[in-house]
Amino acid sequence: MTTPLPPPPAPPKIPTGRELYDAMMNHFEPELTTAMAPTLAEKYKNESVEDKAARMSRYELAFERCDKAYNEYMETLDTQVTRYQREAFAHAEMSDRQQDEGFLDHLSTLFKTAA
Amino acid sequence: MKLNSFHCRHSFGEHRTIALFGNPEMRNSEADLQAQMERKDSGQESQKKSTERREKLTEDRLGERMASTLKRFEGGTKARQDRLTQVQNRVGQTQKIAALDHPHVDSPQQTKEVRYETKEQFESRKRANDLANVLVGEPLLSSEKTEVQQHGPDVRTVNAPGAAKTGAEQQAKAAPSASAQSGAKLAADSGEKKAAQQKTVAETGVPEAQGRRTT
After folding, report:
1. Looking at chain A, which residue has its C-alpha nearest residue B7?
2. I need a surface site. Which of A63, B23, B55, B76 has the fewest CB within 10 A?
3. Which long-range contacts (CB under 8 A, 24 or more apart) does A15-22 make?
4. What ipTM was estimated for this complex?
5. Tens digits of per-residue pLDDT, A54-107?
6. Residue of B nearest to A18 (CA)
């Protein structure tokens, strides 16, 4: 008796670099997203030197955090792809084995008949 | 006989699975090693880049910093996407190979279709099979491969409808090339032979050469 196969594993969704950058930077420093960055010069044109220095150090911290989050996300993504690889091959293997069962049963019957 | 049946089943299943999907132990350890190496590489790279980026951020360098970060993100996600695509392609190819491995199993109708396939269909299947051999590293259909090597592709079309015509055409094609190489005498001989073959075909409906092949 053949048991029904589980559905094939879904591949992990991988965003583009820009999507990933915007998603992360939106969390750490929304002003540095690709949509907001071009407006910064106009927004801070009358900014004092002290304020600018503070803003830059804030940005620097945001970049550092974003880099760290990116590295962690890449590790997770690697794990997801590796897991998908294993599960997809396991599913293909299981499916193939199931297809073979009929043929092997037929062979067994032939051997029994010959005996 | 029961022992044979068991042995056949066990051996067939195991060898075929390993040929198609690889040894499970080796496969897992290989994947682990690859993932580990990639993690190590990316860790070293990010560490190197973060030390390079210690310089203080200024307004002038803000655009440059954003561009380099975006570029790195694009590269990283593209590499993962490529790897994922590669995995999906490999799974798809393996499934195709697995399906090719036993095309005659499913139904008697399919058996008939495979046996009476046209030359084009046979060529297409042979190409796919060759690809399978290259991918897997050893012939999946050892008996079929031997047959192809020994007799050539026309063996499969011998019993196909219209095979007599194909066989006669092949003979007709072969004759002029032989005569071109061997001279006028051979040309005359082959002409006579061809005429005799055509006569045989007309009388019996089966070309002489094919009769030999099928027996």
Report:
1. A108
2. B55
3. A15/B77, A16/B74, A16/B77, A17/B70, A17/B71, A17/B72, A17/B73, A17/B74, A17/B75, A17/B76, A17/B77, A17/B78, A18/B70, A18/B73, A18/B74, A20/A70, A20/A73, A20/B73, A20/B77, A21/A66, A21/B69, A21/B70, A21/B73
4. 0.85
5. 999 999 999 999 999 999 999 999 999 999 999 998 888 888 888 778 778 888
6. B70
